[in-house]
């Protein structure tokens, strides 16, 4: 009698994690550029937008927080990674479903310190689908050609950018921000990227 082993997902914890990590680095290196990870999201029957990221970044030594996401996702991340859910103020990685007030979330996460800037949180926010963009923003900083460039972003993504800029943090303090859309596309906005004037 042959038995079949059931798996929770088809995501390869070595190769797919490496691909997702490289994709996140490419997104941070090219602010304003959307990158597709739909093939990795399809490895999961549920929570495909969040689990490729969580399995890549979370482990026993990191903590995460969820805002506007289900308790089932929290249990799944903890089960698959060994990471523990904590408050926003303690989290290394913050996963946010649709939020009407990104500013209140960003005010509560860690920004790092001048001595330990690496202790800042990384925030992943879900945004509305890309439909040609809803607001034109001027961005400047490393990875952006010339002194600044204009990008068309969904309104929710623009709110995340404006909320982060309103904190008035100076480098090396800050929050690395990723925007994810429902089609499993990722936009990276590192702490060095500023809104143009």
Task: Describe how the helices and strands are arranged.
Layout: H1 15-29, E1 34-36, H2 38-41, H3 51-57, E2 63-67, H4 71-81, E3 84-85, E4 93-96, H5 102-106, E5 122-126, E6 135-140, E7 149-153, H6 155-166, E8 176-181, E9 185-189, E10 194-195
Parallel strand pairs: 2-3, 2-4, 4-5, 5-8
Antiparallel strand pairs: 1-9, 6-7, 6-10, 8-9
- Tell me which CATH architecture applies here: 3-Layer(aba) Sandwich
Distance between the ends: 69 Å
Q: Globular, elongated, flat, extended or rod-shaped: what is the shape?
A: globular
Radius of gyration: 17 Å
Number of domains: 1
Name the helicity range.
Answer: 25-40%
Spell out the helices and strands N to C: HEHHEHEEHEEEHEEE
What is the fold-level CATH name, i.e. the topology? Rossmann fold
Assign the CATH superfamily. Bacterial phosphonate metabolism protein PhnH
Largest sheet entry: 7 strands, mixed
Approximate strand percentage: 15-25%
Secondary structure: number of strands: 10
Strand order of the largest sheet: 1-9-8-5-4-2-3
CATH class, named Alpha Beta
Mean pLDDT: 89
Return the structural class: alpha/beta
């Amino acid at each position: 009698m042959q038995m079949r082993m059931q798996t929770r997902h088809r995501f390869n914890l070595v190769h797919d994690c490496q691909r997702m990590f490289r994709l996140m680095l490419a997104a941070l290196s090219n602010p304003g550029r959307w990158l597709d990870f739909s093939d990795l999201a399809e490895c999961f029957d549920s929570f495909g937008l969040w689990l490729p990221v969580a399995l890549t970044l979370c482990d026993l030594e990191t903590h995460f927080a969820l805002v506007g996401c289900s308790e089932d996702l929290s249990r799944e991340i903890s089960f698959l990674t060994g990471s523990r859910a904590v408050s926003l103020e303690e989290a290394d990685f913050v996963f946010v479903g649709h939020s009407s007030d990104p500013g209140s979330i960003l005010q509560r996460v860690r920004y790092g310190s001048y001595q330990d800037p690496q202790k800042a949180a990384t925030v992943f926010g879900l945004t509305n689908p890309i439909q040609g963009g809803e607001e034109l923003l001027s961005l400047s900083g490393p990875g952006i050609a010339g002194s600044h460039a204009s990008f068309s972003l969904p309104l929710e993504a623009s709110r995340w950018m404006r909320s982060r800029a309103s904190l008035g943090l100076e480098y090396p303090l800050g929050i690395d921000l990723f925007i994810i859309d429902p089609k499993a596309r990722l936009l990276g906005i590192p702490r060095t990227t500023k809104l143009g004037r």
